[in-house]
Amino acid sequence: MAERGALWLLSLLWLTFLSTETSAAKHVDKGSAAHPFSPFWLTVEPQDTLAIRGNSALLNCSAHSDAATPARIEWKKDGTFMSLVSDERRNILPDGSLLFTHVVHSKHNKPDEGTYQCVATIDNLGSISSRTARLSVAGMPRFVSQPSAASVRLGDSQVMACEVNSDLVPFTRWEKDRQPLELSSRLVQLPSGALVISNASEADAGSYRCLVENVGSSKSSDEAQLQTLPETGEDRKLELLVQPSPVAKVTGSSVLLPCVVAGFPAPHIHWMFGDKLLDESEGRVEMLGGGSLQIYNLTEEDTGIYTCVAENSNSSIEAQAQLTIQVPPQFVKRPANIYAHESMDIVFECEVSGSPAPTVKWVKNGDAVIPSDYFKIIKEHNLQVLGLVKSDEGFYQCLAENDAGNIQSSAQLIILDHGSGGVAGPAGPTPSAPRDVVASLVSTRFIKLTWRQPAEPHGDELTYSVFYSQEGNSRERVVNTSRPGEMQVTIQNLMPDSKYRFRVVAHNSNGPGESSAALRVATQAEVQVPGPAPNLQAVSNTPTSMSLSWDKPLTGNGEILTYKLYYTDKSVGTEQDVDIDGQSYTLTGLKKNTEYSFRVVANNKHGPGVSTEDVTVRTLSDVPSAPPQNLTLEVQNSRSIMLRWQPPPLSGQNGEITGYKIRYRKGSRRSETADTIGGTQLYKLIDGLERGTEYSFRVSAMTVNGTGPATEWITVETFESDLDESRVPDQPSSLHVRPLVNSIVVSWTPPENQDIVVRGYSIGYGIGSPHAQTIKVDYKQRYYTIENLDPSSHYVITLKAFNNVGEGIPVYESAITRPQSDPMDPDVDLYELFHAPYTPVPDPTPMMPPVGVQASVLSHDTIKVTWADSSLPKSQKITDNRYYTVRWKTNIPANTKVKMANTTSLNHMVTALKPNTLYEFSVMVTKGRRTSTWSMTAQGTTFETIPSSSPKDVTVVSKENKPRTIIVNWQPPSEANGKITGYIIYYSTDVNAEVHDWVIEPVVGNRLTHQIQELTLDTTYYFKIQARNSKGMGPMSEAVHFRTPKTESSDKMANDQASNPPPKPGPPGNHNPVDTGTSVGKSGVGGSESHILVIVIIISVGAFTIIVVVVGAFLCTRRTTSHQKKKRAASKSSNGSHKYKGNSKDLKPPDLWIHHERLELKPMDKSPEPNPVMTETPIPRTSQDITPADSGLESNPHLQQRRNSYRESVRNTPSSEPLPPATASSQASCPSEILADPEGSYHGSTTAEEEPSYSSNLPPHRSAHPHAHPLKSFAVPVIPASSHPSYESPALPSTPLLAQTGPPTHPHVVKTASIGTLGRTRTPMAVTVPNAPDVPETSKMLEDVDNSYEPDELTEEMAHLEGLMKDLNAITTAP
């Protein structure tokens, strides 16, 4: 049991050390008994206090602790510690409270007034601070206004003024005739101190004065006489004696909103909260003093605008005020105690609520925490401490404050030693130091480190910790690998142009091992552009203007030349900008009551800097600038008319619509009647009208700012007599049905006798009986689709008209639904089906269809359709009960679904349309039983908007034979909402990285595939794609991951796979394809044996290859014929104008093409004919080092001469890929080149995977050396000149990423690859390496080569070959 407990505790420590998350840090070694958390908190904290001059005052404070030494209490005043050693007037009591024996306060000396805070400290543990408390001292009584003589009519109201200092109002009282005045619901003292006398009586006459008492000294105001007068009965205009003013209160308190109105007849006063009428029956609301509003126990929901409305029979008057309810700060989540180790990162969480939003600051051991590179405020209020050191221990407090109060909460941080908790030392060996730590990627703000496994891992699954610190700073941070075996990590959030120190530690089951040697790397410098402009503020001055101001950037990096202000109308989304010279600007011409977002970018001589965060502000509201839309009048009967309308267009509302005002008049009279509708109601029934009378109506919208313009007058006439509703309606005149597979479309016409009121229609249906289901529809409806029916079923359908008396006589019809296999499309034009062939009784005088139909596109989803009716008078005023039906559909052949809507006006707003879609619209008119045909169609294409869906079907595949190259394929987004103009591919090795840290690949046009080159082997990449149209970028697709192969394939591997059967897995020394399932980096006892086996195989293969080459050369020389001899002789006798370069006499000694992993290569020129569709991206992704040849090669002058000759021959050879080693092909009759691979074996270069290359002045398919012996030419073939077509033409667009050459690898040399930021990348120097041909050539390289040689020439060539073999042996046996 003891061993199991020790192992459990060791595992707990191990898991804790590996964790960098706060949630894990909180639980570091909780079981350790050596470092328990110390109970330490404040039991009593000081509260706001009002003191009286000359009296004593007490601020309470006491602390609780289990420590042996009691806490020491000190006090701060206005943030500074108080020195109370020799202070006789102020001293600290034993419990920690601060006592003022005698408060001092005068006009010019206020030593005691201020903000106080107590701090409790325990030595060697830490300190905690209390909330802050305000000590105020009541000033000398001072009257701002005093009561004056006044008179009041009996039953009316009057106010006696008495305004004193705001802090003395609670000490104010009133006297009448030198006797204390008892307040009541009729006699009310206002918050200002004034006295309200309502519903005055003769007993109210007398002498009044107000007094201030109990504040050290008393003071009374002047006396004023109030005289009562009899009521004369004459009308007096309503007058506001006192009106409410804006006020802020704390939750739970009470508020009195004054409203005193005088006038005759006595006004009736009521209050509105928003658009809601307040009622005293609610319990918390009470009316005092005839009109003032008292609200008790305030809650946050009471915030809003309160309106006092006073009205009598003559007029009305109103006043309003804003009530703001403040909520003191409250903790939603308090900071928690944390255990942690040094170098870890921790987060103290602190979440608060309150109104207004509280401000939060952090305190450590009583001192304010100043944000820095290692102390950061994240996620609004949380405190993050990076790279812990021992001195970070102590108590951390979160202090939240707003206008309603302040609170604090503390937590303790304990830094543990790695061996704490009584755990014994390591149970076994730990890993040695990780090897070859290098920075594979270096950017301005992140560095990617890679390393190799330790030489002595002492375990299989190792994890790693990377410790790093900024040079000159002792605070070290740690980042851990995400999974066992991973040997790379990316360090984020570094500073540009700064030096950092890195070291790596491996961990096995026994604990952390040795640390690697320190690696020093400097991040890249950023372009010196300005930082963000701080303190961006926007204030709306008028409904159409906005004032903006900002401060100068803290990091200007030189003189600021101009500022660019970007602003966006949130309702549209289009960003605009304006150049500004100063640090403030007033933007005019804005839309009213519209949200705008603003941001500012500073410019210096280097260009635009970092943008500020967006600030969103709404312009002020105003009266509506447009009338309501689509006002329709519907005569209900002889005495009532129903009005319906739509709100003004959004651009004309200019604020929240609070109601509508309806004005109407009878006939041609000028006198109008007004009616007001509150809220958002869009209809009104006007009743009590006269029979057979013409009425005109118009409607206007209202906001809090006033009433907007009214609609045009619309006239309608009430019926002379009402329709008959003393009996049920007649039978509908016709009923038609059209069966589909799962539905039946029913259409009908109304009863022939239209003098009887029809309120609606009742449809019954069922299989065999019409009484199974019943549906009721409106009286205006003429068709209905019964859905969710069974196929191939017999349904009986009945239709009845009904009114308030009952249902009329039914009409019956039956139908059989179609079978399931019926290809009939259910989405058919219902009106085309029913209104043309199924009209039962054609009207002899059909109505004319609407004319002049126009479709006006308003946005990406809204089109306004307008038309004219030739059957209306010239004024186009609708005075009867006709209505219009608008239908629309898209022009997409696969979508023939038609939608319809009815309206009683000459226009209709069609919404919820698809963006960038062509719609066709037509209109018809219906009046009673008369219906027109459809009008001519009008077309409109909705505007584009940003794509609302991401590209779909994203796939990533590896390019054949090129493991560092991948191809990304995708399909366009389902909802493109416009023409796709391009895509952006994001990819990263970290799926959780910020968007700005992903590498970006732009794709122009509507291509659906893209090629990315030079990726890192054995690495998982994540890809996202974003579509773009003319309106902007759509959402990103979900991340798709792809892992590149572990080993780079070569031409040799490709040839082996193409010409030989799949080999069995062999030892590491052979050239079989790498088994991806084989673990890498394992070490064991058999390691040395495998190395010996590799050496044996290399020597064997080398010897065998030399024999094959010699035999092949001998066989090739015997293939001469007499014809070839003649041709050879003729060739030798030709002069210098021969079309081939040189002759046999000009042949130089053979050039040796050495393909070695350490061969030093010169930079090559770029390809003379780049691919025109290639996508350039100047962001390198890998770093490759090609080191010089060894000293054995340099010491041999003959080989040195050949290497120089090789360089000369390949100097103009363009290539962007490393040279792959070639292998001997069984199909080649004679090798044309001999290569030396790193293992020392020789291979011919005429393989099935190679491509022919030619000298710049030779035509295609011709050898560069026509007279040379096949074994004599070791020069590198050359790509054709630009006049000839290029044979390297990939089908897909690619992103060439050029490898870099560098010096030999050294333990203290950092290999880096630069990654710049988007838009400011530095293009790396193009360094190319020659490559062997890629396409099949076999015998094509030799088809025009003269193979005929004379015996003396053959002897000479064999001598050359013998010297060559000696050189090769010297290379392979070199140490």
From TrEMBL:
**Bias category Polar residues: which stretches?**
1193-1203, 1243-1258
| Signal peptide bounds | 1-24
Any transmembrane segments, and where? 1092-1117
Q: Which residues form the Fibronectin type-III domain?
A: 433-526, 532-622, 627-721, 728-821, 849-945, 950-1047
Keyword set includes Repeat: yes
GO terms, biological process: cell-cell adhesion
- Look up keyword Manganese and say if it applies: no
Q: What does the record say about its membrane topology? A: Single-pass type I membrane protein
Alphabetical UniProt keywords:
Cell membrane, Disulfide bond, Glycoprotein, Immunoglobulin domain, Membrane, Repeat, Signal, Transmembrane, Transmembrane helix
SUPFAM superfamilies noted in UniProt: Fibronectin type III (SSF49265), Immunoglobulin (SSF48726)
What domain of life?
Answer: Eukaryota
Biased composition regions of type Basic and acidic residues, renumbered to the chain: 1045-1054, 1143-1168
A single GO cellular-component term from the record reads: plasma membrane
Biased composition range(s): Basic residues: 1120-1130
Q: Where does the UniProt annotation locate this protein?
A: Cell membrane; Membrane
| InterPro entries named in the record | FN3_dom (IPR003961), FN3_sf (IPR036116), Ig-like_dom (IPR007110), Ig-like_dom_sf (IPR036179), Ig-like_fold (IPR013783), Ig_I-set (IPR013098), Ig_sub (IPR003599), Ig_sub2 (IPR003598)
**Family assignment from sequence similarity:** Belongs to the immunoglobulin superfamily. DCC family.
Under which name does UniProt file this protein?
A: Neogenin 1b
List the top taxonomic levels of the source.
Answer: Eukaryota, Metazoa, Chordata, Craniata, Vertebrata
